[in-house]
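To: structure subgroup
Subject: Chain for Friday's discussion

All,

I'm putting the inputs and outputs inline so they're searchable in the archive.
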Amino acid sequence: MSSLACQAPIFSVKSFIMQAVVNQDFLSVGDYLAGEEGGDIKHEYIAGAVYAMAGGTSDHHQVGLNIAFAARSHLKGKPCKVFVFDFKVRVRISQDDVFYYPDVMVGCDPRDTHTLYLRFPKLLVEIASESTDRLDRREKKLAYQTIETLEEYLIVAQDRHEVTVYRRGNDWQPELFSRLNDTVTLKAIELALPLSSIYEGLAIGAAA
């Protein structure tokens, strides 16, 4: 990737952060982490501002578990861990801290020793709904691209058979899979994942 391509996402995310903290009371990282441990509602954190997360649907959880179980089974015996739903990723944008809750993460980096979050994930997955699709494809995608170890980012629709894969090795260009007999190859962990297994147990229509 060219240096210009690397710089553009950082600028865009910084602009998003500046907008996010307007009229928000600043919360320190330590207070945020302490609050998340004892709270019933999860929050994402952007440079001192916190945003409550809506609860997931049954389809959301089923898709996430299908992916996580397939990855965990595939990675058994390897120095990688799979995290689902309630574990955070910490992103550092310039001097600002951002914490998100990806739906599925795979981490293989020995530097990740914190008990509450990853900093060096290899694979991230967001399961998108109509209300989160724009955030997943814009702000989160740009933020995730700044993670030095990230190789792949997946956006998985929960209301139709559709998976979008962004790969560092492909300059983060989208690759779309929308047929139930398609297979998504996760090069980051060398796993071939059929769409039929991602959407197993769900009664939804295929993408138009």
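Points worth raising on Friday:
The helical segments are 3-20, 29-38, 58-74, 133-137, 139-145, 195-198.
The first helix runs from residue 3 to 20.

D.
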